[in-house]
UniProtKB/TrEMBL annotation:
It is a single-pass membrane protein. One of its GO terms (molecular function) is energy transducer activity. Signal peptide: none annotated. PROSITE patterns: TONB_CTD. Belongs to the TonB family. NCBIfam families: tonB_Cterm. It comes from Cecembia lonarensis (strain CCUG 58316 / KCTC 22772 / LW9). This is Gram-negative bacterial tonB protein.
Length: 489
């Protein structure tokens, strides 16, 4: 092994100090030990064992020439940190907002519920790692991650949207965390690992094994380890690039074909995920069944599978809306015509009733006139109690009939009941004008009801004194009939 190769395996620069070499070895050894413990297949475990052996060889090459230097390290794990290094490891570190978001695996904006779920998931994983850690160094690494997790939660908690009334640092509960939609690449990575391991197994076991130099194999292991680390941290795009770089080192036609097959599979999985997402959005739009919902779908998927159907749905909804508007307009016109017919019928009935009322009033007035003529045709001597019905000079209201009409318009109060029910007509009262012109013995001769009769009697009783009637130059009592008209304006 050369110094350059040893430095590359430990990810060091030339001139690194002994402490830097030792620490780099510890970190890489810890990571590879965790991967070896969690490897799903025996073949992958064998690859990690080879990687560990290469790292140990690089460490011996750079750190010493004897087994005594390596004896201080655990046989299956890195050496223990000094007390000063442990104190430094557990010293609270200031986290930036970006680092806190990355640690919890979330992005802005985020709700408090989403933050709590991410915190619970990460905490459960770190606590499980502490329990199953094969040595103290790995356990310390998990404990430090747990401290960083607490700091990240405290930093992000005030930034959460619509906080819910829960304790600042929630305890893990049995409630099932919200299911998150995984990236299509998440499912592609295991398939890529499986296929890559198979290719490597074939290449190492088959006839092409001798064609691949030891140097290429070591470089392959290094790049693939970097890809494994990126995949564990869920940096899917970067991990895929590293995998392609690792297997590209083999420069084998069959490997290249296999990688292209993996790329095609990833692309197909991504297309399937997009199709599933589009189908879900289409189902939501159909449930809403509104123009705005279909327009939102078209804006999001202008060339989608269901775009033509969405456009047809919009046309159908608009046509249906226009039809309903036309039907509503027709119903309104029919209702307006019916209202006009009803109004005309009411007006006709009112007109007929008014004509009939006027006819009866005319007949009654004519009857009263005839009765008055009969009375007036009798000699004055036949009138009893010295009350004249037709004296030589009739009584008059001061100022004449015009003044009496003005008096009525200023003092007559239209009854509320009569106004509300639309009662109109003429109330006839009879009265006696005394020799001094005062009004006496006011009585109802013919009324129309609804309070109009009482109001007519009141306004006549309160009338100012009249000029009395005269017979042979002297004032006499005169009996008169007065019509009082009630007319709604």
């Amino acid at each position: 092994m050369t110094e350059q190769k040893a430095l590359e395996l430990l990810d060091l620069e030339p001139g690194a100090s002994a402490s830097e070499i030792r620490r780099a070895y510890q970190e890489i050894y810890n990571e590879l030990q965790i991967r070896l413990t969690n490897a799903p297949t025996e073949h992958q475990k064998e690859l990690y064992r080879k990687r560990l052996a290469a790292v140990e060889e690089a460490y011996l090459f750079l750190g010493g020439e004897s087994e005594e230097d390596l004896s201080e390290l655990p046989s299956m794990g890195p050496v223990e940190n000094t007390s000063e290094e442990k104190a430094q490891a557990f010293k609270p570190q200031h986290l930036s907002e970006a680092a806190a978001l990355e640690l919890l695996g979330i992005s802005k904006p985020f709700s408090r519920g989403k933050l709590i779920d991410a915190y619970k998931d990460k905490k459960e994983g770190f606590e499980k790692g502490i329990k199953v850690a094969p040595n103290n160094e790995i356990k310390n690494a998990f404990q430090k991650s747990l401290v960083d997790l607490e700091n990240a939660f405290s930093l992000l908690e005030p930034l959460a949207e619509r906080p819910t009334p829960v304790p600042p640092k929630p305890e893990p509960s049995k409630s099932k965390p919200e299911k998150k939609k995984a990236s299509p690449l998440l499912w592609a990575i295991p398939a890529l690992l499986f296929l890559a391991a198979g290719i490597w197994f074939y290449l190492t076991k088959g006839e092409k094994r001798d064609e691949i130099s030891q140097e290429v194999k070591e470089e392959f292991i290094k790049v693939k380890s970097q890809a494994d680390l990126l995949a564990e941290k869920q940096y899917w795009d970067q991990a895929l690039e590293k995998y392609e770089e690792a297997y590209g080192l083999l420069a084998d036609t069959e490997v290249g074909d296999s990688m292209r097959s993996i790329g095609q599979r990833l692309e197909a999985m991504a297309l399937d995920a997009k199709a599933e997402e589009q189908a879900l959005a289409w189902a939501i739009a159909q449930r809403a069944n509104s123009t705005s919902a279909y327009e939102d779908f078209i804006n999001k998927y202008p060339s989608g599978t269901y775009t033509a159907q969405a456009e047809q749905k919009i046309r159908d909804l608009e046509a249906n809306s226009e039809r309903k508007a036309a039907e509503q307009q027709q119903r309104w016109r029919e209702a307006e015509e019916q209202r006009r017919r009803d109004q005309a019928e009411v007006e006709e009935q009112t007109r007929k009733k008014q004509a009939e009322s006027d006819r009866r009033i005319t007949e009654e007035a004519e009857l009263l006139r005839r009765e008055a003529e009969v009375v007036s045709s009798k000699p004055i001597e036949e009138v009893t109690n010295e009350i004249y019905d037709k004296p030589e000079v009739l009584p008059t209201f001061p100022g004449g009939l015009a003044s009496f009409s003005h008096y009525l318009s200023n003092n007559l109060v239209y009854p509320t009941l009569a106004r509300n029910i639309g009662v109109e007509g003429i109330v006839y009262v009879k009265l006696i004008i005394d020799t001094d012109g005062s009004i006496q013995d006011v009585e109802l001769l013919k009324g129309i009801g609804a309070g109009c009769d009482e109001e007519a009697i009141r306004v006549v009783q309160n009338s100012p004194k009249w000029n009395p009637g005269m017979v042979k130059g002297r004032p006499v009592k005169v009996r008169m009939n007065l019509p009082i008209r009630f007319k709604l304006s």
